[in-house]
Amino acid sequence: MSIFSEVPQAPPVAVFKLSADFREDGHPQKVNLGVGAYRTDECQPWVLPVVKKVERLIVEDGSLNHEYLPILGLPEFRSASSKVALGDESAAIKENRVGGVQALGGTGALRIGAEFLRRWYNGVNNTATPIYVSAPTWENHNSVFADAGFKDIRPYHYWDAAKRGLDLAGLLDDLEKAPELSVFVLHACAHNPTGTDPTPEEWKKISEIMKRRSLFVFFDSAYQGFASGDLDKDAWAIRYFVSEGFELFVAQSFSKNFGLYNERVGNLTVVARDGENLSRTLSQMEKIVRTTWSNPPSQGARIVSKTLNCPELFAEWKGNVKTMADRVLLMRDQLKAKLQAQGTPGTWDHITQQIGMFSFTGLNPKQVEFMIKEKHVYLMASGRINMCGLTTKNIDYVAQSIHDAVTQVQ
Q1: pTM value?
Q2: 138 an active-site residue?
Q3: Is the separation of the CB atoms in 220 and 112 below 8 Å?
Q4: In the chain, fewer beta carbons within 10 Å around the N or the C end?
Q5: Torsion angle of alpha carbons 12, 15, 17, 23, nearest 10°?
Q6: What is the rounded average pLDDT of the residues 219-230?
Q7: Residue of 373, 365, 380 lying closest to 401 (CA atoms)
Q8: In the annotation, is 348 catalytic?
Q9: Mind listing the pLDDT tens digit for each residue in 329-379?
Q10: Vertex 182: Cα angle to 180 and 184 (nearest 5)
């Protein structure tokens, strides 16, 4: 008898199971709209030109070696990452109350932040602190905070299915009713999975309540630059909250906007009340990192750091990011136009009103099942599609498939 004989089989991760099913499908017109990764119009992964350039610079740099980085990560990467999030003129940075923790992707940044909050937020070992995540949200948000030990994870209103947009009234009401000092996980831009973001005026209303009721802000920023093509525009919410005096965390990922998916490059930006609070906070995060991955990898961090810290490379990177964002915006425009041209029932304005990599189509589970089984178009059960999976070659087929799903399946 194995000591592991009672271990239950865990269900597969939905998005990776979807990709596995897609690979096994032999249909000539199959389309993968599931996994969240950028694709070119040839439906191929894209290594950013600036990344290739920097990788060559790293290879040719004789001063580099494979010694351990500091536990908190490459200093020039951490500072540059925080600067991208908060802006060149951030008062918080100038006041030396901003620090960073290099992490294994955005997920690692979330986990380090969650571990710290569980141990030290408003006292020691706060497993009962309510953690609020949007309904719906990226599925890993719930798991990260649950595995960090939090017992009270709650949804807050976000998506209005009827109008296919933001449920602002419900969101504001949840903020008013949440216990003081609750933690709210907010998507900085390009909300996953809905692609629906608050406007600046709506963010101001959210901020006012959170400040008045002493709610903690934990931003997840996985798509800066990728959403609109403008780094500053996509960081507006983060910078506004900082300007309002919030202490907050920002989990940053460079998977999407650098195309460094398998390098796992992330950063947890910490904005504290003052330098002394920052120092103590980072000292505890260092202890968490030491027992989690001990020490972060260097390659991806060096690529990002060299790019962000060189004006010429930084400008080239912004151009690469805009190239990706513009292709996504083009696919949104074309999909909406094709659905409207063929008279697909319902309103499709939300496709262009949403932003970023994902679109919440509004297709129900039965229609999704029809799309996969009958049309070989793979998308998440929620109806979320990755706009990057659309190309000029498959968009007509996808639009027709959506039309058939809506008209044939209720």
Answers
A1: 0.93
A2: yes
A3: no
A4: N
A5: -160
A6: 93
A7: 373
A8: no
A9: 999 999 999 999 999 998 899 999 999 889 999 899 999 999 999 999 999
A10: 130
